[in-house]
TrEMBL record:
Protein name: Glyoxylate/hydroxypyruvate reductase A
CDD domains registered for this protein in UniProt: GDH_like_2
Keywords tagged on the record: NAD, Oxidoreductase, Pyruvate
Top-level taxon: Bacteria
UniProt GO molecular function: NAD binding; oxidoreductase activity
Organism: Hoeflea marina
C-alpha cells in the first residue's frame, strides 16, 4: 500500500465507506485518505471530489489532477480557490445508459399520459378518453447535445420520436434538427412538444429555465402545451417561474429530478402539484463499481505520461 501516488477522497454528504472499499479493491497500491477535519497531507497526487470543502484543494502543492465524481462540475467550481490543474469529469457508459433510461421513461410517461391515468386510478375513474398519439407525432427537444443528450436522443429516435436539439456550439447530428447558441434558441424553443434538459450548470446557463424561455415554447401539439423534463441541475431553473407556467398553462407538465435546494424541502409546492413529477436526483447516480476502475486506469496512465481524457474546459465551465 502507498507505493503509488496518494489520493484524497473529498465527497461531502456521501457515505465514503463504499468508495474506500472500491478503491481498496481496484487500487491496492494507492493510499486513499479522507480529510474530515480539513487537515490534509500536502503530498497528495490526485483528488477525487464531490462538493469538496472550499480551500481544501488549494493546500495541495503536488496535486496533478482533480477527478469529479459527477458528470457535472459545478460542484467543483463552487470553490473559488480550486487550483489550476486538469479537471476530469465522469463520462461512463454505465452513467450514460442509466441517464437515457430515465429520459426515455419520462418522455414515454408524458407521451402515454401516465400522470393522467394515475390520477384517474387514484379517483377510481374508468375514463373513455383513451387518446394516445404516436411517437412520430411528438418532437422531443434536447437542451444539451453532449454525452448524455446525444445518447438519450438516439434512444428516443429509435422509438420513433422526432428530435430537435440545442447546444452551445454548432453540431450536425444525423436525425436531429440541430440549433445552437443564442441565435438558434428561439427556433429551437418553438420546435418541440417535450423538452429534456441535460445542460451543465455554468455562468451562462444559471436560471435559463425561466418565464421568458417558457413563453417561447410556443408549439401546441398533441400533448397541448409543452412538457419540461429537467435532469440537468436545479440551478438551471427558476422554480417560481416553473410553478407559474404550470398554473397558467404555458407548460402542461414537468418532471424535475433536480432542484435549487436538495433535498427538496418537505413543504415545497412541487411535492403535491398535480402537474409535477418529482424524482430525488436519481436520474444517473455515480456508482463506485463503474467509476473507480476507469478513474484509477487514468491515474496510472497519466503517471506513465499519457494525456488525461474527459477534461473540463475551464473557460466554458463544463
Ligand atoms: P456534456 O458536457 O457532454 O454536454 C453538455 C451539453 O450542453 C453540450 O451539448 C453543450 O454544448 C451544451 N451547453 C453547455 N453550455 C451551453 C450553453 N450556454 N448554451 C447551449 N448549450 C450549452 O455534458 P453531459 O451530457 O455529460 O452532462 C450534462 C449534464 O447533466 C451535467 O453537466 C450534469 O449537470 C447533468 N447530470 C445530471 C445527473 C442526474 O442524476 N440528474 C447525472 C449526470 C449528469 P456543446 O455541445 O456546444 O459543448
Amino acid at each position: 500500500m502507498g507505493d503509488k501516488g496518494r489520493i484524497l477522497l473529498a465527497a461531502t454528504g456521501w457515505d465514503t465507506d463504499f468508495w474506500l472499499a472500491e478503491f481498496a479493491a481496484k487500487a491496492p497500491a494507492r493510499e486513499v485518505v479522507l480529510a474530515p477535519d480539513g487537515d490534509v497531507d500536502p503530498s497528495i497526487d490526485y483528488a477525487v471530489v464531490w462538493k469538496q470543502p472550499p480551500g481544501l484543494l488549494s493546500r495541495l502543492p503536488n496535486l496533478k489532477a482533480i477527478f469529479s465524481l459527477g458528470a457535472g462540475v459545478d460542484h467543483v467550481f463552487n470553490d473559488p480557490t480550486v487550483p489550476d490543474v486538469p479537471i476530469v469529469r465522469v463520462v461512463s457508459p454505465d452513467l450514460t445508459t442509466r441517464m437515457s433510461e430515465y429520459v426515455v421513461w419520462q418522455v414515454l410517461d408524458h407521451h402515454r399520459r401516465g400522470p393522467c391515468y394515475r390520477a384517474q386510478q387514484a379517483a377510481h375513474v374508468w375514463s373513455e378518453d383513451k387518446n394516445q398519439c404516436a411517437a412520430a407525432d411528438i418532437t422531443v427537444g434536447m437542451m444539451g447535445l453532449g454525452e448524455l443528450g446525444r445518447d438519450a436522443a438516439a434512444k428516443l429516435r429509435a422509438i420513433g420520436y422526432s428530435l430537435s436539439g440545442w447546444s452551445r456550439t454548432a453540431r450536425s447530428i444525423d436525425g436531429i434538427s440541430c440549433h445552437s447558441g443564442a441565435e438558434g434558441l428561439a427556433d429551437f424553443l418553438a420546435s418541440a412538444d417535450i423538452f429534456v434538459v441535460l445542460l451543465p450548470l455554468t455562468g451562462d446557463t444559471t436560471g435559463i429555465l425561466d418565464a421568458t424561455l417558457f413563453c417561447q415554447m410556443s408549439k401546441r401539439g398533441p400533448l397541448g402545451a409543452p412538457v419540461l423534463i429537467n435532469a440537468g441541475r436545479g440551478g438551471l431553473q427558476n422554480e417560481a417561474d416553473i410553478l407559474a407556467a404550470l398554473d397558467d398553462g404555458t407548460l402542461s407538465a414537468a418532471t424535475l429530478d433536480v432542484f435549487c435546494k436538495e433535498p427538496l424541502d418537505r413543504d415545497s409546492p412541487f411535492w403535491s402539484h398535480p402537474k409535477v413529477t418529482v424524482t430525488p436526483h436519481c436520474a444517473g447516480a455515480s456508482i463506485p463499481s463503474s467509476l473507480i476502475g476507469p478513474m484509477i486506469a487514468q491515474m496510472d496512465a497519466h503517471d506513465r505520461g499519457a494525456d488525461l481524457a474527459n477534461l473540463v474546459d475551464r473557460s466554458a465551465g463544463y
